[in-house]
Amino acid sequence: MFSFGSKLLLLFLLAFPCGLISIGQVSADSDSAEDVDPDASVDEEEDEDEVLVEEDQMQASDGDEDDSEAADKLLTSHPDADITIIFMTGEEFPANEIVRFLVGFTNKGSQDFTVQSLEASFRYPQDFQFYIQNFTALPLSTVVQPAAQASFEYSFIPAQPMAGRPFGLVILLNYLDSEGNGFQTAVYNQTVTITEKEEGLDGETMFMYIFLVGLVVLMLFGMYQVLESRTKKRLPVKIEKGTGGMSDVDISWIPQETLNVMNKASPKTSPRKRTKRAVGVDQ
């Protein structure tokens, strides 16, 4: 009996932990299932949001395409509008100087045109979609009736750092017809070179001129000194000489006795002795 009870107890002790482990697994599976369901719902919601975002992006891209198409329509010119341009300052574009031009608008149709604005800009010459300098648009709001003309003046100043380089100059005229349709005409669309204005006299040029004048003066002074030294070498030196002989001297006033003594005297006799001898003769 005791052995049967011990065996039963031993079986219970072995079966109880196994039951606890199986119950824990079942509860864990249920918890994981409960945990997975919110994540799955979140994923489904995210997928729905992505689909909605993609639809919005598609609609936005469609709207952009519509805007681009509308912009393309605005870039067209009306066949009844005849537009000309003339530069009042010449087709030279000096940096930091005012450039003026006139735009003429002629209505050759049977309906009115409303000229809205006139704008100008410098573009990158390799890509005219890239703006280098954009000037302020000139609002006009001028109505041009059929068979009528109108002219508009515009001016701008190219920036000083742009001097010496080519840029694309684009001048656009925006106008509407009587039905409200917008049009745009590229009045001028060419590559121009911004020139640098030559000033009258700047500091660098003045210094160069002063240096050149000083150099010329120095060269002239050096040439004068060289010529003067050569002239002094060529001029003969005048040396004063006494009388060459008695024939060049008037001796008519000397007594004959004295002349005889002087002729008899030896040339080697010193002047002192000759003087003493002449004195003795006179006595």
- Listing every helix as H and every strand as E from the N terminus to the C terminus, the arrangement reads HEEEEEEEEEHHH
What kind of sheet is the major sheet? 6 strands, mixed
Give the CA-based shape. elongated
Q: Using only CA atoms, what is the Rg?
A: 60 Å
The class by helix and strand makeup works out as alpha+beta
**Extended strand count:** 9
Q: Approximately how much helix is present in the residues?
A: 40-55%
How many DSSP H or I helices?
4
Point out poorly predicted stretches.
Answer: 26-46, 49-74
Portion of residues in beta strands equals 25-35%
Distance between the termini: 210 Å
Task: Calculate the mean pLDDT score and round it.
Answer: 74
Please explain how this structure is put together.
The chain is α+β, with helices and mostly antiparallel strands. It is built from 4 helices and 9 strands. Helices cover 45% and strands 28% of the residues. The strands form 2 sheets. Strands 2, 4, 5, 6, 8 and 9 form a 6-stranded mixed beta sheet that branches. Strands 1-3-7 form a 3-stranded antiparallel beta sheet, with no helix packed on it.
List key phrases describing it.
283 residues, three-stranded antiparallel beta sheet, six-stranded mixed beta sheet, 9 strands, alpha+beta
Topology:
Blueprint (H helix, E strand, L loop, with lengths): L1 H73 L6 E7 L5 E2 L4 E9 L5 E12 L2 E8 L3 E7 L4 E8 L9 E11 L5 E14 L7 H32 L21 H9 L6 H12 L1
Parallel strand pairs: 2-9
Antiparallel strand pairs: 1-3, 3-7, 4-5, 4-6, 4-8, 8-9
Helix pairs in contact: 3-4
